[in-house]
Design goal:
Elements (H helix, E strand, L loop, with lengths): L16 H22 L8 H4 L1 E9 L10 H16 L7 E5 L3 E7 L4 H9 L4 E11 L28 E3 L13 H11 L27 H14 L5 H7 L9 E6 L5 E6 L4 E2 L3 E8 L6 E7 L1 H14 L9 E5 L2 E4 L2 E2 L6 E5 L4 H13 L5 E10 L1 H30 L2 H27 L5 H30 L4 H33 L4 H30 L3 H4 L9 H4 L5 H12 L8
Parallel strand pairs: 5-13, 6-12
Antiparallel strand pairs: 1-3, 1-15, 2-3, 4-7, 4-8, 4-11, 5-14, 6-7, 9-10, 10-14, 11-12
Length: about 600
């Protein structure tokens, strides 16, 4: 019979457990050192634990432009929203994409939290449009016979939202141009007798506030349709205010609603967009040194400066309200200042501003041009006290779960429980350090569902130890000694552990991909701890078990080791059984062999 080759490792064996232990020790030291070096020694807490507001936004594509919801535009929107929120002085706000079409905005409690919540909701497009006419918010009664020829919703001089005027810094008025051709055509159309009011016409003849003139209409028909839309628009109705700006292209005239200096709603007839939000380079609130009033200073890009100079040159020659331009955000007029002079690279918006309204407008002008429109899916607000209570409750639940697992391990596995407890400690340390590092790295925040995932992971990790321990006990019951039992049990236990962890990780991955919001925290933590379970069992639990099997306490099957052959009902040793069988059978005849 051939002798076994030297250095051959037994099936499923761990010839050098020290290597695995050294590897995991190096990893733990490196990760812990990185955590202290980064300065983030605690995991970042989510809004539900730290307190604050979490807003989920869903991208909404315009009809026929579904491809606009793509990774590039979503990342651009994230950057703009983040700058807008941080521009208010909100510290540590988190803005990140989630899935293909969702953006999560987490605003921690503190200064300007309410203001930031309001501005996050205004996430769509910013345009500068010339004002063609302004009228009362609601449709006016039909004119009498003696006043026929006057528009039913007659344009009136505007108090221009916020009572604002706009002028260039230290500039003098100039008169160099006239209104654009399209603006003049629409102005002339407004002077014509307006269509019959809604109350005296059939429903089919009255366009809805959300209807836009068709592209294939003649100029006269398009002008009449736009005038009718303007006349019948009721800005006191929130639904009509929202519908008025839907589906309007920048190059088309539009109607919109806004509030004036005293807070009253007005409706505006607006020309095509002359300047877009992307043409504004910077805007900030300041105090006018001459008047002591709050103003908004604007600076345009090079291209925006040329556009703004052209349109203000034209508007400065008009009379009210045609000398105004409207700042339209999300289809609503946020300001409609009067133009007093030709403007270029920088300008001032002045009027009835206080500090907050000036800062709001400046922030919107700086960061308001987003590539997509968004709708708010959910808004969750948690107070600091409630967040602290939830964190405390989660930690207590985790401690209770860990204590129950340890009690069970000690009672059932006795000395083996030491290996299990050490493995749980290593897993807990790795989980904590990695969560602390993932906060600044990818914006991971520990929320309440994530804490639940960590608690569930205690059971998953303990289950892996139990599988291995029971395989070892099965080998001991078959009559083997501890050292070969440890090595023979490992391949069978390893296969079961990998299958079990794969199923858990697959469930976590699917849950992470198909859910939105806080549930993803549970899935992420469950997946992370499942992966760490594999690492700990392979690089720590198995090597430690191999080393302890060489000790007298475990190798001799001490009563408190958890591996006592008598308690396990072990069979007689396999070697003795074979020798006894050989002696009974007698010597083997060489010829028969």
């Amino acid at each position: 019979m051939a002798a076994p080759k030297k250095g051959r490792r037994p099936a499923g064996g761990q010839s050098r457990p020290g290597r695995a232990l050294a590897l995991i020790l190096i990893a733990m030291v490196a990760l812990t050192g990185g955590m202290f070096w980064s300065g983030h020694t605690t995991p970042r807490l989510g809004i539900d634990l730290a307190g604050g507001t979490s807003i989920t936004l869903k991208a909404k594509a315009e009809p026929g432009q579904e491809s606009a919801v793509n990774e590039t535009n979503m990342n651009t929107a994230v950057g703009i929203i983040e700058r807008r929120v941080n521009g208010l002085g909100v510290s540590e706000a988190e803005v990140q994409t989630q899935g293909r079409e969702n953006i999560i905005v987490n605003i921690p409690r503190g200064t300007n939290e309410k203001q930031a919540r309001e501005q996050v909701g205004t996430t769509a497009q910013l345009y500068f449009r010339p004002v063609l006419a302004v009228a009362a918010a609601a449709p006016q009664p039909a004119p009498s016979a003696s006043s026929s020829g006057s528009p039913s919703a007659s344009p009136k001089p505007s108090s221009s939202a916020s009572g604002a005027t706009v002028g260039e810094k230290s500039a003098t008025p100039t008169a160099t141009a006239t209104a654009s051709t399209q603006g003049r055509a629409l102005t002339e159309a407004l002077k014509a007798p307006s269509p019959t009011p809604t109350g005296s016409s059939s429903p089919s003849a009255t366009p809805k506030a959300s209807e836009t003139p068709k592209a294939n209409q003649t100029p006269d028909a398009a002008t009449a349709a736009l005038q009718q839309k303007f006349t019948t628009l009721n800005c006191l109705d929130p639904k009509q205010r929202t519908a008025a700006g839907e589906g309007v292209k920048p190059a088309d005239p539009a109607v919109a609603c806004g509030t004036n200096a005293i807070g009253e709603w007005e409706k505006y007839l607006l020309g095509p967009a002359e300047v877009e939000g992307k043409d504004v380079n910077d805007a900030k609130a300041a105090i006018d040194q001459r008047t002591g009033q709050w103003i908004v200073d604007m600076e345009f890009t090079s291209a925006g400066s040329k556009k703004f100079q052209s349109i203000t040159s034209k508007l400065s020659q008009q009379t009210e309200p045609q000398n105004q331009f409207a700042i339209v955000l999300d289809g609503e007029v946020v300001s409609a200042p009067r133009v007093q002079t030709t403007l270029s690279a920088s300008a001032q918006i002045s009027g009835s501003f206080n500090q907050q309204s000036a800062q709001d407008l400046g922030n919107i002008l700086s960061y308001g041009a987003l590539p997509l429109s968004f709708e708010t899916q959910s808004v969750d607000t948690v107070t600091a006290a409630l967040g602290g209570d939830q964190l405390e409750a989660g930690l207590i639940a985790g401690a209770i779960g860990l204590a129950l697992v340890i009690i069970y391990l000690v009672a059932y596995y006795r000395g083996l429980s030491l290996i299990a407890i050490l493995s749980l400690g290593v897993s807990a340390l790795l989980t904590y350090v990695i969560m602390a590092l993932l906060g600044p790295a990818i914006g991971f925040a520990l929320n309440l569902p994530a804490v639940c995932g960590a608690i569930v992971a205690i059971g998953i990790t303990a289950d892996s130890f139990i599988v291995y321990f029971e395989r070892i006990r099965d080998e001991l019951r078959e009559g083997r000694t501890l050292r070969p039992a440890v090595e023979r049990a490992w391949p069978r236990a390893r296969r079961t552990i990998l299958v079990s962890d794969f199923v858990s990780f697959l469930a976590a991955a699917v849950l992470f991909l198909v859910t939105v919001g806080k549930v993803q925290g549970f899935a992420f933590t469950l997946g992370l701890t499942t992966l760490l379970d594999v690492v700990v069992v392979f690089l720590f639990t198995k090597p430690v078990m191999t080393l302890l099997a060489r000790t007298k306490f475990f190798g001799d099957g001490h009563a408190w080791s958890g591996l006592d052959p008598k308690r396990l009902g072990a069979k007689p040793p396999l070697r003795r059984t074979r020798r006894a069988n050989a002696s009974v059978a007698g010597p083997v005849d060489p010829k028969e062999a």
